[in-house]
Amino acid sequence: MSESILSAQHLVKRYGDATVVSDMSFDIAPGECLGVIGPNGAGKTTTIRMCLGLTVPDAGLVTAFGLHMPRDALAIKAQLGVVSQMDTLDPDFSCAENLLVYGRYFGMRDAQIKERIPALLQFASLTHKANAKPGELSGGMKRRLSLARALVNNPRLLLLDEPTTGLDPQARHLMWERLQMLLSEGKSILLTTHFMDEAERLCHRLLVVDHGKKIAEGSPRDLIAQHLEPDVVEVFGTGALGLVESPLKALAARVEVSGETVFFYTLDAKPLMQALVAYPQLRTLHRPANLEDLFLKLTGRQIREDA
Q1: What pairing do the DSSP bridges indicate for beta strands 213-218 and 231-236?
Q2: 46/21 Cα distance (integer angstroms)
């Protein structure tokens, strides 16, 4: 890997007796999108807060652009852009005014900010909403305005905490397109997400975290190849659960159950698909293994109490 734009080494964060981040290490290269995936409560947001200097680690070190966090927090934040989970737009300001006021926090001159505003609104597809207030915008528009606001200081690194949560598919795809544009321009992105298709589409590398620990790291395709069988057959319908202990089990490397669906993970699905012809009442789906399978294998299928 080329020289890191951000490096987190052996981060630890405790709250009382609970260790929410344990020995977390990772690096982000220039122009790279690093994704962090894991269940709710896995430590993703706490990790980002430590990278931002908003939460002080109990152990470990964060460096960015050759500087140390939190000692050089102001100098680091001048080169960061942040989109948080929650909407933090000012409801009393128009879209253009939100960008103007936010730019002032970086010590930018009004003339400098105003020069950037038209391009930022165009990037967010909000030129026609320049004078509208956030309350007049759809959810997708608000998220794009938050992204445009994060770019007002022309940052080298973006930290995005679940940036497309709550958006409909069309709005999510537009956000993905904009993020891919930023990556093509050489910006780096640290992204947390619960959408596995988003992680696979945007991220060059992924960290899988659970219970505050990094449990896997690699490119999406490499992680799938390393941890999963290539073929998955989903079987559902009346009587599907009875297949779990049937002779069909021998045709798969691994069998799992979620609700009323049986998942057969196999190196070659052809014999299994032929055997399932004898069960016309059941419905089947044959597909390649994906990141959702990886996520569930590594972190479990059971709903957590704090989810």
Answers
A1: unpaired
A2: 7
**Cβ contacts of residue 36 below 8 Å, gap of 6+?**
44, 47, 48, 190, 191, 192, 193, 206, 207, 209
Q: What's the helix, strand, coil split of the chain in %, to 5? A: 35, 25, 35
Q: Which residues are 214's β-sheet partners?
A: 209
Give the Cα separation of 24 and 46 in Å (integer). 11
Which helix (H) or strand (E) element contains residue 121?
helix 110-123
Query: Both tokens of residue 123?
Result: 């990037």
pTM assigned to the model: 0.90
- Note the CATH number of domain 6-79+155-224: 3.40.50.300
Kindly state which CATH superfamily the domain 229-288 is placed in: RRM (RNA recognition motif) domain (3.30.70.330)
pLDDT in tens, 182-230: 999 999 999 999 899 999 999 999 999 999 999 999 999 999 999 999 9
